[in-house]
Amino acid sequence: MKKIITSILLIFISFNVFAHGPSPQKVEKSITINASPDKVWAIVKDFGAVQKWIPLVTDSKVEKKGEDTTRILTLKSGGKVIERLKGIDEEAMKLKYEIVEGAIPVADYNSFIVVAKGSNPNQSTVTWVGRFYRVYKLNPPIPAGQDDETAVKAVTEIYDAGLPALKKLAETK
């Protein structure tokens, strides 16, 4: 009887190992900028002007619907992304947003950008963090372009292009 119960438990556990779905992914990037936190924060918190410092974005249009503020980004690739502002904390210099839908191969994307004081008054550290899942939420086989690697690569590309451009804008403005 013990062998039967043990066998049933092992079978049940082995099926559950493969039934978990996708794992959450995270990209976190930081950059030091030789400009005051107030100056950098003024650029970052302008939710409708992200095209000024993310080279992959050619246009940004802000829409207000009730309590929601969204922006529609036009990408250089021709795609569109709709993002919703989740909050701006002036004191913490933190902006939170999420992707509602669009051409970036991620699901349930939530992000924040924080501007912090650097080692001197004219220096800032900007940290950009995104948490998300791959597009395909079922178990393998995973269709090409909907996997974890593609999702992480897309977000990393945006951050790696945006942060140096933000640095250049803040330091020359």
TrEMBL record:
SUPFAM superfamilies, sorted: Bet v1-like
Taxonomy, superkingdom: Bacteria
The keyword NADP belongs to this UniProt entry's keyword annotation: no
Keyword Signal carried by entry: yes
Signal peptide: 1-19
Alphabetical keyword list: Signal
Cross-referenced Pfam families: Polyketide_cyc2
PANTHER family (UniProt xref): BLL4707 PROTEIN (PTHR39332), SRPBCC FAMILY PROTEIN (PTHR39332:SF7)
Protein name per its UniProtKB record: SRPBCC family protein
Originating organism: Candidatus Methylopumilus rimovensis
Native organism taxonomy: Bacteria, Pseudomonadati, Pseudomonadota, Betaproteobacteria, Nitrosomonadales
